[in-house]
Specification:
By secondary structure, the chain is mostly helical. About 50% of the residues lie in helices and about 0% in strands.
């Protein structure tokens, strides 16, 4: 194997998290592998448990910390800087795009996302987490970023994505690839139309 594509595919690793193989080969060329300590299975199991549960809890805290930090850096004041003004900081850009439009902004590209969705062979109108992940990692974004996007896109928290949730996930991926930040919470204007009732039920 002269590249990491097989490992990336079989282990569902985001290409963005995979090391440069040529550089790794150069670093390891002088190493004596017979002197390496044997693999500790129990330790690996502990790490797997940490990745499955503890990291998720930590990731839920990161957006809040980023929001506080960004708020401190934001320019304050000015006649057009209040939250209600369409001229507010970042209004109409990135995640704020479409906030004042009557139609869900994701609809503009949904026909493309629907084609991708159908090619992934959904079952009963939904994609499993594993299938969705295999598609999302093609973006080459870090797993930490994709984890946040998944959390926002799986609106009904059933561990699967329907066509609207899948479209939302791809929309957020493209936002990040274009250099915009992923929001800590899903803005009201990005909630899929079929999930509006779900959010209302949660808030009540």
């Amino acid at each position: 194997m002269n590249d990491g594509s097989i490992v990336v595919r079989e282990q569902s690793i985001s290409p963005g998290d995979f090391p440069d193989l040529k550089k790794m080969q150069e670093l390891l060329a002088s190493q004596d592998f017979s002197k390496f300590n044997p693999m500790k299975v129990k330790l690996i199991e502990m790490v797997d448990g940490m990745l499955a549960s503890d990291i998720g809890r930590l990731m839920r805290q990161i957006p809040v910390e980023e929001e506080v930090r960004n708020d401190k850096q934001m320019v304050k004041g000015g006649a057009f800087m209040n939250d209600e003004s369409p001229f507010g900081f970042g209004r109409g850009e990135g995640v704020d795009a479409g906030f004042d439009e009557p139609q869900w902004i994701v609809y503009k590209e949904k026909y493309k996302y629907d084609e991708m969705f159908d090619k992934l062979n959904p079952v009963d109108g939904k994609l499993s987490g594993a299938v969705a992940k295999s598609h999302m990692i093609k973006s080459k974004l870090p797993n930490s970023t994709l984890s946040r996007i998944w959390k926002l896109s799986d609106v009904d928290k059933d561990g699967m994505l329907d066509s609207e949730e899948f479209a939302l996930a791809n929309y957020l991926i493209n936002l990040k690839l274009d250099g915009h930040e992923i929001p800590p919470e899903l803005p009201a204007h990005l909630i899929p139309p079929s999930k509006k009732g779900f959010y209302s039920a949660e808030d009540s």
